[in-house]
Amino acid sequence: MQKKREKMRRRSGSEARRVLSLINKTGIERGQNAEDKVSRVFCRDRRAAWPAWLYGMRKGYPEEDRLGIDFMAETDLGLIPLQIKSSERGVSEFRAHPRYTDDIVVVVIKTGDTEEIVSTKVIGVLAQRRKDLANT
User: Fold this and answer.
1) Mapping DSSP to helix (H, G, I), strand (E, B) and coil, where does residue 125 land?
2) Structural contact between residues 98 and 74, judged by C-beta atoms closer than 8 angstroms
3) Looking at residue 12, what is its pLDDT?
4) Of the candidates 26, 31, 35, 66, which lies 20 to 30 Å from 60 by C-alpha distance?
5) Sheet of strand 71-75: strand arrangement
6) Other beta carbons within 10 Å of 36
7) What mean pLDDT value characterizes the chain?
């Protein structure tokens, strides 16, 4: 009976690790999908739909990515770093991280968000940051 319990505990532990691994993988994929949506909307030539103050958007360079910057928005007031998250929980965890600074704008892109919604959300947070920069 003792051996059965030990075997169950071991199996339960390995199953729990497997489930956690799948959950983490799903979260990473959701995050990548959110970044891909932003790329589709902003890293193609669609400037006609952008506000005049937004000159361009590019993916963060590897050294920027290590600092938590997924994209850099080029604006009339300079560069604005942008972090894309797929959930509010991700935002909270990112803001709690020591590398986070208030200079990085964070936006949540959900799985069901259309390209129009993505555009509205991103331009909205960039417009707010731009307004904050103009007032300093």
Assistant:
1) helix
2) no
3) 65
4) 26
5) 54-59, 71-75, 78-85, 105-108
6) 13
7) 83
Asked if residues 60 and 43 have their Cβ atoms less than 8 Å apart, the reply is: no
Q: Are strands 105-108 and 78-85 parallel, antiparallel or unpaired?
A: parallel
pLDDT tens string 54-96: 999 999 999 999 999 999 999 999 999 999 999 999 999 988 9
First to last CA, the chain: 70
Which amino acid is residue 107, in one-letter code? V
Rounded CA separation 115/19 (Å): 32
What the block records as the tokens of 30 is 């959701």
* pLDDT tens per residue, range 30-63: 668 888 888 888 876 566 678 999 999 999 999 9
Is the four-CA dihedral 38, 57, 71, 50 of positive or negative sign?
Answer: negative
DSSP H helical segments within 43-69, as ranges? 62-66
